[in-house]
Amino acid sequence: MNASSIHSKAHLLRRVFVWELPVRVYHWLNALCILVLIGTGFIIGDPPAILSGKEASSFFWFGTVRFLHFTAAYIFFFNFAIRIYWGFVGNKYADWKNFIPTNKKYFKDMWAVLKTDIFMTAKVNHHSIGHNRLAGFIYFLTFLAFALQCLTGFGLYAATSNWWFPNLFSWVPTLFGGDFLMREVHHWAMWFFILFAVVHVYLVFYHDYVEGEGEMSSMAGGWKFIEEEKFKKSQEEDKK
After folding, report:
1. Looking at the predicted structure, is the pLDDT value of residue 16 above 50?
2. What residues contact residue 133 under an 8 Å CB cut-off, 6+ apart?
3. Residue ranges per domain, the chain?
């Protein structure tokens, strides 16, 4: 194979800044909070019995676990609120329209991504530079789950707090008919996040391998490497 044929098959790449700093901070802070919330949540839901000859007053490990859980919950809540805000003021890749299906083309693009993820087809006709349509819709579902976790979590916390902010959620137990069902919903929603994390990590690695756009590194530096043809088609679709 001569040099000219190699050059003809080469893809010209454009370095595109996709993920702004607030989006990247949200992503990693959110991941850290979820890890802390899941770990401490398991302990709070089923605390282990620790036998010791010391006085109970000498231990405060469970109080520390609760403190970590509540601290992570506050950070999680306000981090989530800032991300919602950024969906209206950020760049086009952070825009809320990327997450909610608004037309038939959105569903068509979702099917194209499904063919990549399920049938392992490397070449599909979608030109998303930011979140692909399937990922965007799944993130929309996770946002709903985030809201549910915040409601049920602060609803449980309201009964034991004197601060005004948790007390804003004191009406939530009534909505669920009491603490029992609300606690169950809060617990099972946690398993949704565990499942999501496993699938999310797998698909990030998979799409990074299939598309070769720097999917993983982009969430650290914000940049992706996009084929010139794909970039132009994406720009054309944005104008429609």
Report:
1. yes
2. 101, 106, 107, 109, 110, 112, 113, 126
3. 13-47+55-239
